[in-house]
Amino acid sequence: MNSDQRRKEILNKLNASYTPISATTFADTFGVTRQIIVADIALLRATGQPIRSEHKGYIIDKPDDSLIKRIVTKHDKAQVQDELYAIVDNGGKIIDVIVEHSVYDKITALLNLSSRYDVDQFVHKIQSTGANPLSILTEGLHTHTVSVKDQASYERILSALSNLNVLIEGE
Fold first, then answer.
1. Burial per residue of 107-125, b for 16 or more beta-carbon CB atoms within 10 angstroms, e otherwise
2. Residues of the chain with CATH 3.30.1340.20
3. Does the pTM exceed 0.90?
4. In the chain, which segments carry CATH 1.10.10.10?
């Protein structure tokens, strides 16, 4: 298989997948190095393909009928898991986290968390690496972009976050 065929197959697999696919998985599939896959993804992006990187791999977002909302919360590091559970347990998908930094302006990190399993993996990564969540830069104040199937799900999320005393504002 030549490089053009490989890139076409990478694109086909991404378009067919609703979950991220890692560069390592692609490398194993095509018998090439991870670095070659990273270069292939860069070339596909250069041609205008909407491939997004996240901590679990590469994905192309699929259009759906979801509502996109923003939620502002404030809490300490110990409440990260509870906050994220409150969102996913009530029908939300956490697309990203945004902090407004005094020097760097808006800093956004993609999360794509839609289940307790995803949340657990994210929290484990923070704990095992000793990293801090972005909200540490803003004394716990941050915004999440969330995707919900309907207004009722969104209202449940706001209620759950309010019960945790972390909700500042919902859109």
1. eeeebbbbeeebbeebbee
2. 67-170
3. no
4. 3-60
Architecture in CATH for domain 3-60: Orthogonal Bundle (1.10)
Any idea what DSSP says for residue 21? B
Residue 61: HSE in the Cβ half-sphere, 13 Å Cα cutoff: 13
One-letter amino acid of 5 = Q
Q: What class, spelled out in words, does domain 67-170 have in CATH?
A: alpha beta
Q: What is the rounded CA–CA span in Å between residue 69 and residue 95?
A: 10
Per-residue pLDDT of the chain (171 residues; tens, 9 = 90+): 899 999 999 999 998 888 899 999 999 999 999 999 999 999 999 988 889 988 889 998 776 668 899 999 999 989 999 999 999 999 999 999 999 988 888 998 889 899 999 999 999 999 999 988 878 888 889 999 999 999 999 999 999 999 999 999 876
For residue 46, give the H/E element and its range: helix 34-46
